What does this fold into?
Amino acid sequence: MESKHRIQITVNEEEHDLLVHPNRTLLDLLRYDLGLTGTKEGCDEGDCGACTVIVNGKVMTSCLVLAVEVDGAAITTIEGLHQGDELHPIQQAFVDSGAVQCGFCTPGMILTTKALLDEISDPSEDEIKHYLEGNLCRCTGYTKILDAVNNAVQLLK
Amino acid sequence: MKRFDYIRPGNMADAIAALQANDEPYLLAGGTDLLIGMKTNAVKPKCLIDLKGIPGIDCIEYDNGFKLGALTTVRDVEVSPLIREKIPALSEAAATLGSIQIRNRATIGGNLCHGSPAADMAAILLAMNCELQMATGNGAKTMGLDQFFTGPNSTVLNRNEVLAQIIIPKEIGQFKGIYLKHGPRKAMDIGIVNIAILLDADVSSGFCNQIMIALGAVAPRPIRAKKAEALLNANRLTPELIQEAAEAASDEATPISDFRASAGYRKDLVKNLVAKGIDQILNSKDPS
It folds into this structure.
């Protein structure tokens, strides 16, 4: 009853073999078991997008995913984006555009942008807004974030 | 979250057996409603049966009509080129649910089985006359979606039944559809009123061959506005008749007042949105 399950996952290209209780969320696994605190806990009910990670190429709110559900999956968190000492172009675009204030939403915002640009390399403003609907920011008013996404499109060309 | 057992069956028979063998089991699809309920202890499963390990339960098949596996994600429904081409209103309704993070996870079957009167997939599928195929302990069984909901967050599903497939009849392809979701926010919220309309009409004469109107979030379960439909079927869609039908639809709604909206406001919205929806379908140059 309620025994731990063995899962094997790849996080930021590093393989992990873990024993988890079924009630462990992917968010808590990343933050507390793997120490990857770049993934933030905001609302804890899938509304704010601060805990967004990429699972097998798709963005998800990790607070609403159980660790046991992602056995075998490849996961990307904000810690996995940089290339050596260089920021990922999307991260650089957020810095250059001043799209970060308190920074709490930024990891989720950047990962959702990555999933967007992997899917649509040159999105329209409507497509950007539709894709980023689930990432809330209480500081920037979103204008600078839209600028950052557009700048990232240019940097990635 | 309280502790629970986790089972991931590899086929439907094992899923049904696990349902019957365990205390307080819950079926897990995308989990976007269930996990929130578990975090607040509104639901306390002792055992979660994850259906995602069942092969083929998340497929979109087209053979004039559509067969959608119950665990097809809402995002897959939204972006399917076939659905966008043949029944775009379903894709448009899917695009209004939650966020991309939620749609990547939430499933069409989970949205129905959660039983919310405001479920985005419920109203549009109800208007599409869809049928549900259930796997049961005694073989498969089929029923209309109109028989499925019994009240807020409750359905007819028994302890030994699992929703396997959603079947959209082939005739739906000849209808034009629209999904209108009204609320204070454009994203990340359930609707105050959801309206789905499927219309088969002669555009030049305005003659209505058949119309289906479904209403969400205005009754204990998603409903069809049957009186409004009866007024419009096999009639010419004059502005006066559309107005009369919109008022009939409003009369059929039995909403509650809550923090989102008052019952009276919801009834007014039904009237306005039904008329607006029919109008938009009739005037759409690029029919959906």
